[in-house]
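Example record for the data management plan.
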Amino acid sequence: SAALDVYKRQVQMSTGDTAAFQDIVSEFEAFFNVTLNYPHQQREDIVARKIKTTHFIGKMANAVVERSQK
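Corresponding structural encoding:
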C-alpha cells in the first residue's frame, strides 16, 4: 500500500536512487550499534496501529456528536 511505501518518496541515496527499506534498516543498525529483529513486521505493526488510532478517533468524534445531540 502507499502508506507502507511512504519512506520511498523521502529517502534517497547519494546516487539519487531510492533507498530500499532494508538498506535504511542496515544503516540505522550500524550507526546505533543495535539489531532490529523483524524490521518489516515492526513497520507493518506501526502502520496498523496508526490506522487503528485513526479509526478510534473517528469513533470518539461520533460519540461526542451523538452525546451533544441528546
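Summary line stored alongside the record: The helical segments are 21-32, 39-68.
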